[in-house]
Amino acid sequence: MADPSTGLGASIRRQSTTEQAAEAVRQAILSGRLPPGTPLREAALATELGVSRSTLREAARTLESEGLVRYQMNRGIVVADVTGPDITDIYAARAAVELAAADALTGHRDPEIYQTLADLVDQIERAFDRGDTAAALDGDRLFHATLVAATGSPRLRRIHEQLQQEQRLALALAERSRRELGRTTDDHRRLLEALHGSPGQARAELTAHLHAGAAELRRLLDLLTHRNEEEAPRG
């Protein structure tokens, strides 16, 4: 009698190992331990993580889909650089999705969504006041994901989720933005108030909010680039 095993158990075990390897590298990137431009030496990293090189390659494909690593000719896997054009493009795409969400919310005025947004604004402000930038950024991510949920469109939610994944590396840089840029206030409450207003008010405030976020990240990127150039050894 033929063996009825499909091999699915091995597939799950392998996937679990791949996910663990991806998470380990992901956290090293987002924490700054692996800065942008760092080549990931396949053999050494696989040995350090205790996984096979094929598992590491699968993990790298996951991270590539999130915009955290890239494959470069003659260099292999490299931690992705965040550029000004990257930030501009991500925010332009976010604006297209989130403006549609603002139109939807100001159309149906779902009270549950407004309450969730209000709770998230409170969360962001509390985190901001105690200097917990990571928690503030998490609240920011959830605020905008909740706004997009107002469209009722699974496709727009998936598109927005992908954009937020691609933005994670830029947001890792933003964990230092309060100190580097001297931020003392957060503007999500003003955005929430505009979302309670007319569609035109909501669109205008959301556009300004996203433009300010993109400008802040570009400015931070310029500051870090300038600092790295100053600290680089001179020949």
Within the largest sheet, what's the order of strands? 1-2
Largest sheet: 2 strands, antiparallel
Helix content class: over 70%
Shape: globular
Radius of gyration: 21 Å
**SSE arrangement, N to C:** HHHEEHHHHHHHH
What does this entry look like structurally?
The model has no long low-confidence stretch (mean pLDDT 86). The protein folds into 2 domains: 8-79, Arc Repressor Mutant, subunit A; 84-231, Four Helix Bundle (Hemerythrin (Met), subunit A), CATH 1.20.120.530. It has 11 helices and 2 strands. It is mainly alpha-helical. Helix 2 (42-49) crosses helix 3 (53-65) and helix 4 (84-108) crosses helix 6 (133-149). The chain is globular.
State the gist of this model:
By secondary structure, the chain is mainly alpha-helical. Helices cover 73% and strands 3% of the residues. The longest helix is centred in the C-terminal third of the chain and has 33 residues, at 199-231.
List strands and helices in order, with pairings:
Blueprint: H1 8-30, H2 42-49, H3 53-65, E1 69-72, E2 76-79, H4 84-108, H5 111-129, H6 133-149, H7 154-166, H8 168-174, H9 177-181, H10 188-195, H11 199-231
Antiparallel strand pairs: 1-2
Helix pairs in contact: 1-3, 2-3, 4-6, 4-7, 4-11, 5-6, 6-7, 8-11, 10-11
Which features characterize this protein?
single chain; 235 residues; mainly alpha; Four Helix Bundle (Hemerythrin (Met), subunit A); 2 domains; globular
